[in-house]
Amino acid sequence: MLDKKAVWTIAKKDVYALRASVQLWLPMLVVPVLFGIVFPGVLLTWARLADLSAMSSLGKLVQMLQSISNSSGKPDFGSMPSENHQLVYFLSLYLFAPLFLLIPIMSSSIITANSFAGEKERKTLEGLLYTPITMKELFLGKILAAFVPSLLLTAGAIIMYGIIVDVVAYPMFGRLIFPNASWILLMLVVVPAVSLFVILINVLISAKVKGFQEAYQLGGLAVLPVLGLVVSQATGMLLLSPLALLVIGALLLIVDVCLVQLLAKYKRHAFLDHHV
Amino acid sequence: MIDTQQLTKAFGSNRAVRELDMRIDKGEIVGLLGPNGAGKTTIIRLLNGLLAPTSGQVRVQGMDPIRQGERVRALCGTLTEHTGLYEHMSGRANLRFFADLYHVSDPGRIEELIDLLELRSFVERSVGTYSTGMKKRLGLAKVLLHRPAVLLLDEPTNGLDPDGTKQVLDHIKALNQHERTTILICSHVLSQLEGVCTRYLFLEKGTKIEEGTRKELERKYIRERTVEVEAALGEPLESFAEFHPVRLDDDRFRFTVPDREQMAELLRRLASAGELYGAQTRNADLESIYFQIRRNSHAG
Hints:
Helix content of chain A is 76%, strand content 0%. Chain A is mainly α.
């Protein structure tokens, strides 16, 4: 039987610890503000107002946009009234999307590494293991304490970003271009699935390693696939369609379920066995 | 209450606990004594199900700490060397947190412990600012929250000054008397446990080398006794020659006697011949017993 109060107690304590530690939450706040709000705001405003025909290299990008939009299912860049329209549309709805995956990945791994491996390092984890809580309750509390803040942070950043996009783009398009189906799926399916994936990976890593640094560095490996996504997205090789997002989200959820099952096998007495 | 049979725990090729048979009955205070690395902490972890035995058996109140871990841990209060307190939280926040985990719903219990362990003056401050003694007392309050029937204390007086040590040990004894709490104290500082425990268990390299009450151990290991007396001798010193007298001061002398009976004889003579103001045995303390045990165990 699961004791919800114990889960909640652990989660609350971790969130409190997060709040009390400026060096933890400050970078987690700065990155979304900078990459989710400031840079996109500046870049989109520039893309709307600049004289793009004067720039030869951008011309190539625009040509490329026109060529990929020929294939079915992709937005019809060719029918847009100006190159500025095309660029704003491309930047706001496609280029920045993967950045908003980096936010939950970063925050989930920092919070989890700190709460699990960090407790090990500060010798408080053993104290928790001596209490009557089950491993399930302990893991759930820790997962919740990373999942909720990271989701709230990402949602906040996406909403702020959406407001900026619509403020810049509305006068051009005469309608709200944000959010489209892909963004809604990104927020509701992919972000939670990715967050959970990163948290579970980090919990598994944290259970094995000795300290925060080690956990954080290993956990950083989880960021690599997303960096790949950003690069491929930027070069126009892959325009994430709603279907692709659904498939990615579903695959991640399947992996998440497997990871949860792996975690459920984790025994209390395996924690200290490696290190004595 | 606590029962281990042939309990062995190995980490790789290193056997930290070897074929340990240990039985602790309800209401006992047992001192687990041994140098650092003797396996004391490993035993505490095995009793709580934080480690699984390599072979042999552990039972706490008849329960297996691995299979019935939650119930065993609800029964035990374990104070480890690192108290496991959260430094950024206040003492009170720590107590509330652990009260929730131990299912302690009575808010009066926290107040009770704050008074009992005299935490009031610093309990609202964050634990990071505490002295070692404050942390130990708060740690003790933490493990007492759920009124454990078994108290497992790993080096509870480590890092404490003499005042703090006395305070903690007095609390432990009082707890045993008032609530019949079964207590296991691990320590390498033998002199502190003198007079605290009902029974002692000596551990070396994971092996039990001796156990017994203070009296049993003294009988077995202390033969020749050295006694220091403060007295006005009614007779010349030479007449005590059989007791190997040494004059330490004007009125202080040291004698050596072969056994307890001879000690009684010496004291009788001192008192009847002159004035006996005081006498203290010098080599029958726990530490002397311990060294004797170790000598014996190494010899054979």
